[in-house]
Design a protein that fits this description.
The complex is a heterotrimer of chains A (348), B (284) and C (249). Chain A is mainly α and 348 residues long. Chain A contains 15 helices and no strands. Chain A is globular. The relative contact order of chain A is 0.17. Chain B has one domain. In chain B, strand 1 and strand 2 form a beta hairpin. In chain B, helix 6 packs across helix 8. Chain C is of the alpha/beta class and 249 residues long. Chain C has a single domain, classed as P-loop containing nucleotide triphosphate hydrolases (Rossmann fold, 3-Layer(aba) Sandwich). The chains are: A mainly alpha (348), B mainly alpha (284), C alpha/beta (249). The interface between A and C is large, with 45 and 53 residues. Chain C: It holds the Pfam family ABC_tran.
Chain lengths: 348, 284, 249
């Protein structure tokens, strides 16, 4: 049945509602890129934020969209960082090459380990992912001939981006580079989650039993999204290695994964912007606290976690908006005009 | 060889005392308390401070290493943990990680980040040779204490009224309440005892495991391995798992140091994937 | 003629308990067939074996003559075997529009498309519209599924299965729990299912069974007890005995 030009059926309008680009998003990205001109002394901070945001975006893909909890996402961040760092150290200094290699390596690792998280309850997945990250950390630690072990990977020299933009000590190039990479990968992720593939991922999160019953090959889809998320985390790791020109075992540490969940809790999972907003808030908080009591930042993270859980956030497995998501309104969250499911409500 | 076995057994016993509280909260109360190691750390610090600052004999500090973490556990259970029973595991994990972070930073703030040393009394130092095997006196002491504790815990859980009430409370809290069982009180008491045992383990283990503010994070994974490999349906599974882990870790570090903890982590993943309910638990 | 769906000697044991006991069963093409039986007779186990949620201990499942015994659930759906659930199994955070769209896109092999959204695919949209109209869901397509009235959720439950364009449709107690006011819509939707879809109805509600089914099979203790036309089964004293014996609870 040919649709008349100009007029949209309710079906078409309804299906285009969720993927529609909203003006808030334009504002968000104008602000993001505007940061380049506003903050001459904050280039490094912004690139740190962009990297964390990309990392959080990666976790959001599996946690917010696919409903897979992970306590070990740092495994892929670390792998990406080491791959990019090693490439640069051994002569291949082109940053984009490093990104691609890191993404490929992390995707491969994600693909291989995705089969471990297909089954099992949340608790099993939490522990398996934690275990995978520990194994990666242990490998990096033991393979000191390659990774530098506890001393870290030193002697990384980066070439200019695209052969044109040299990394400078103020972090101007790093700032622009990380933001552009984040933006491109964000657009890609946005496309993916609003595609039929993305719809099937959300369906699996909501009800795997039913997803199978409408013909969704659940396991293969989960493997695919997990692999994609791992590649994203790998790119984040590569950016980290390239902008700091250093990689240490710290990139694989447990606190990286734990912080990351906190970022998503702050920003809200399941709508892509949660990770970005969470990253901004997290880093700004860290920056603020760091000037007061640098070594006790851990205490404040812990306190925030405890308070957030106790005051009753919406369960992030139910892809709720999170604290700031609610303040920022329903950015990119159509079809969610009403209160979340019972059980997802904040408890009194 | 036998010395390594002996050290491994001592290490495993210690792990069990440290982790059994976690096995109970997870298995019986279905609560993932990653902050369990913080209570162990508390016990270790209590012992170290009493010994080093006030000169209390090591053995005399041990009751306090139990009582003080138990009291902290009781207070936290009543004020905070109680709100999280029945919440998702992810919530519980986030909450308890938060507590871990706070405890790590707080201890760092109060006592500094350096290692705490516990100087053992002379009669616990040194080694003796029994039937050709070098046996550390302190490790024998640990084995003796832990063996007593294991038997005591098993008896309490299976033979006493408290044990049967606890099992009833876990099976169906509503029915148990209907039978006049003080479910909240039982949970609180269990939690407190578990925390106290962890504290005692922390004090006993300070010499072997080391004691600094990062203790809860460093050993969290060991406790989790004990619980996941051993299963949570009783304490026999975790006990066996502790012994295996202890022996494997000591032997691994001795014979194949290059592998490090790699083998143990891999083992945990394999067990989790193949038998999520634990190696020694019957499938439900 | 090949049956739409057939089982040969299908068995399922849970430990010592036999939940499905050597069931040999035929669902003819275009059939309106009901499977009844007292509580605990193993109806749901049987459905789970047909759809692949459970693996049988023995026996074969044939869909239009092809052996599907070892296929996973999603592959069976793609081959034309769809089901509804006794307890709603929907996607709370998605809209009915997206839910039906998902089923249609998966059937057309679009589930791996990761670039263009469903809103750009005319054939899919036309199908969604047709399915929504058939089940009276057009007005609420854009609502969140979790907030729909129960009767609408029940209709969506069937609509999703129907959107997979099954040749065999298993309806597991479609009217369970639907309030009286919304019942008529649901029964009408079930009655209006097209003839090219062979339907196996698992039901407790005898009014629905007698009004809908042409043949009835009775399952007792996991085994086929009897089978016949509505007339034969409804007058069979043994069936009455089975039901009366169980009717107390």
């Amino acid at each position: 049945m040919p649709a008349e030009a100009g007029s949209r059926s309710p079906v078409e309008a309804g299906l285009r509602h969720r993927p529609r680009w909203r003006w808030q998003e334009t504002v968000f990205w104008i602000l993001a890129f505007g940061s380049f001109f506003l903050t001459s002394d904050k280039h490094l901070l912004v690139s740190e934020i962009a990297i964390l945001a990309l990392f959080a975006l990666s976790l959001d893909l599996i946690l917010g969209y696919a409903g897979i909890v992970s306590l070990g996402h740092a495994a892929f961040l670390g792998l990406g960082a080491y791959v990019a760092g090693l490439l640069a150290k051994h002569g291949a200094g082109e940053p984009l090459l490093g990104l691609v290699a890191a993404a490929a390596a992390a995707a491969l690792a994600g693909f291989a380990t995705s089969f471990l998280v297909l089954r099992g309850a949340d608790l099993t997945r939490l522990m398996v992912t934690l275990g995978v990250a520990l194994v990666f950390g242990e490998i990096a630690n033991q393979a000191a001939w390659l990774t530098g072990g506890a001393d870290g990977l030193q002697g990384i020299t980066m070439g200019p981006v695209l052969g044109l933009f040299e990394f400078d000590i103020f972090g101007r190039t790093a700032h622009a580079y990380t933001l552009v990479v984040l933006f491109i990968l964000f657009l890609l992720a946005r496309r993916v989650v609003h595609s039929p593939f993305g719809l099937s991922i959300m369906a699996i999160r909501d009800n795997p039993l039913r997803a199978r019953a409408v013909g969704v090959p659940v396991n293969r889809r989960l493997v695919a999204i997990y692999t994609m998320a791992a590649a994203y985390a790998g790119v984040a790791g590569a950016l980290l290695a390239q902008t700091t020109q250093f990689v240490s075992l710290d990139v694989l540490e447990f606190h990286r994964s734990a912080d990351l969940i906190l970022v998503l809790v702050i920003g809200g999972a399941g709508y892509l912007y949660g990770g970005l907003i969470g990253a901004v808030v997290f880093k700004l908080l860290q920056d603020a606290f760091a000037t007061l009591t640098p070594q006790y930042w851990l205490f404040w993270i812990g306190l925030i976690l405890v308070v957030l859980v106790l005051v009753g956030r919406e369960r992030i497995s139910l892809h709720a908006h999170g604290v700031l998501g609610r303040i920022f309104g329903r950015l990119g969250l159509p079809g969610r005009r009403v209160a979340p499911l019972a059980g997802g409500e904040p408890r009194p | 060889m036998l010395t390594i076995l002996f050290d491994g057994v001592a290490y495993g016993m210690l792990l069990f005392v440290l982790a059994c509280g976690l096995a109970v909260t997870l298995g019986l109360m279905n609560f993932v308390n990653l902050a369990h190691g913080a209570f162990a750390m508390a016990g270790g610090y209590v012992s170290a401070l009493m010994l080093n600052r006030w000169g209390v004999p090591f053995v005399a500090t041990l009751p306090f290493a139990f009582i003080i973490p138990a009291a902290i556990g009781l207070v936290l259970e009543r004020t905070l943990y109680v709100h999280l029973y029945g919440r998702s595991h992810l919530d519980q994990v986030l909450f308890s990680i938060g507590l871990v972070f706070m405890s790590v930073a707080a201890v760092d703030y109060a006592f500094g980040s350096q290692q705490q040393f516990i100087r053992l009394p002379a009669w616990l130092q040194g080694r003796v040779e029994i039937a050709g095997v070098q046996v550390g006196l302190y490790r024998s002491f640990i084995i003796a204490i832990c063996a007593v504790l294991v038997i005591a815990i098993q008896l309490v859980l299976t033979k006493t009224r408290f044990g049967s009430r606890l099992r009833a409370a876990v099976d169906d809290p509503r029915v148990a309440r209907g039978l006049g069982i003080n479910v909240n009180g039982i949970f609180a008491a269990t939690f407190a005892v578990g925390s106290g045992l962890a504290g005692l383990g922390g004090a006993l283990g300070a010499e072997i495991l080391g004691l600094d503010p990062s203790f809860p994070l460093k050993f969290m994974i060991y406790f989790l391995i004990v619980v996941t490999v051993g299963g949570t349906s009783g304490i026999v599974g975790p006990f066996v798992a502790s012994l295996i882990l202890g022996i494997a870790d000591v032997a691994g570090k001795y014979y194949v140091p290059a592998f490090g903890a790699f083998v143990i982590y891999t083992l945990m993943i394999v067990v989790l994937v193949l038998r999520p309910q634990g190696l020694f638990a019957r499938a439900r | 003629m090949t049956a739409a769906l057939e089982t040969i000697g299908l068995k399922k044991r849970f430990g010592g308990l036999t939940a499905t006991d050597d069931v040999t069963f035929r669902l003819e093409k275009g059939a309106r067939h009901a499977l009844i039986g007292p509580n605990g007779a193993g109806k749901t186990t049987f459905i789970n074996l047909l759809t692949g949620v459970l693996a049988p201990s023995g026996g074969t499942v044939l869909l239009e003559g092809a052996d599907i015994t070892r296929l996973p659930p999603d592959a069976r759906v793609r081959r034309g075997l769809a089901r509804t659930f006794q307890i709603n199994q929907l996607f709370p955070a998605l809209t009915p529009l997206e839910t039906i769209g998902l089923a249609v896109s998966e059937r057309l092999g679009g589930g791996w498309h990761w670039w263009r959204s469903l809103g750009t695919r005319r054939p899919i949209m036309a199908e969604i519209e047709a399915v929504a109209e058939r089940f009276g869901l057009t007005d609420i397509l854009g609502e969140r599924t979790a907030t729909l009235p129960y009767g609408k959720q029940r209709l969506l439950e069937i609509a999703v299965a129907f959107a997979s364009k099954p040749r065999v449709l298993l309806l597991d107690e479609p009217a369970a729990g639907v309030p009286e006011a919304e019942r008529a819509d649901l029964l009408a939707a079930v009655a209006a299912l097209p003839r090219e879809v062979s339907v196996l109805l698992i039901e407790h509600d005898m009014d629905l069974v007698f009004s809908f089914a042409e043949r009835i099979s009775v399952l007792v203790n996991g085994a086929l007890f009897t089978e016949g036309t509505v007339e034969e089964v409804s007058t069979d004293p043994r069936v009455r005995a089975v039901y009366l014996g169980e009717a107390e609870h």
